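Bench log, entry 3. Co-assembly request; chain sequences pasted below exactly as received.
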Amino acid sequence: MNIQLDIVLPPIIVGTLILLIMGLNRLMMESNTDARLSKDVQQFANTALLVIQEELRDVDAIVEVNDSTFSFRSATADTIHIFRDNREMIFLRRNAALNVQDTTRYAARLADLRFTLSQLDGTGPFMLRVRVASESLPQEGVGINPPRYRAFASRDFYLRNLDFN
Amino acid sequence: MGQTLLALAAISLFMYTAVNVNRTHVAAVGETVAKQQVSNAINYAQSVSELIYAQGQFYANLDTRFGSLNDVNSPSGRLSYVTTLGDSLFATIELAPEEPLIHGAYGRVATIQVYSQESGGSFRSRVSLLVTIIRPD
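Structure output for the full assembly:
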């Protein structure tokens, strides 16, 4: 059987071209979304650090520190607990004298939040290392099996107010 | 003959396009990693600045504590930190002599430089940060 190439080839080429163009459009859309997601999670991780930094200005006394929670008494005599609940960063604030409690939940898309307290040279000023990881979810992406993006931010904070107390 | 050439030309064109698209994709992934590295370097520079502020109350001992940390090529002349990604970052601190600062205060300026290490072993400057330490009255 003779195959007539001049009839068969053009539709194949045109079909492949259409597939290629559609694939490119899909890839561009996915790439745009991926770029936005990776930028977002990095921004969330850095912003979580900034929010914590603002709270740390008021540290008057340390109540408890473990790997996942940092609790302290502030200059206004509030007891503040900072921890992660699922993907949110929680600031739980209690004032025993006034019997008031409030909670602030930051939707920081957290995957991890850790605290490490240390003293410089063993006995020197207090430093708090805060490590944050934020992560996107597959449903936030587009396409088939979209990737999850994770970003990290870590910083040491000098607890000045505590040091000068 | 003409059809065969046409087919070859089309395949070449498709391959060229596919290779370029893949290259763009790889570049985008590289860009994401680079963004994380820059962010890590900025955070590390700020951590070092917090360390300097913490030592600021020991103003007279600044040279003892930080004076020798000004050579990135020497392990004893730099600070180092391993990021969550496993990259190593290095920091040096250059302490300027005491000078008049704003509002009549006197103090010293510390220049923090953060470097990453390239695959060839050379150091690449990532972030530079200046902090001032006021002399206590």
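The mean pLDDT of chain A is 89. Chain A touches chain B through 36 residues (CB under 8 Å).
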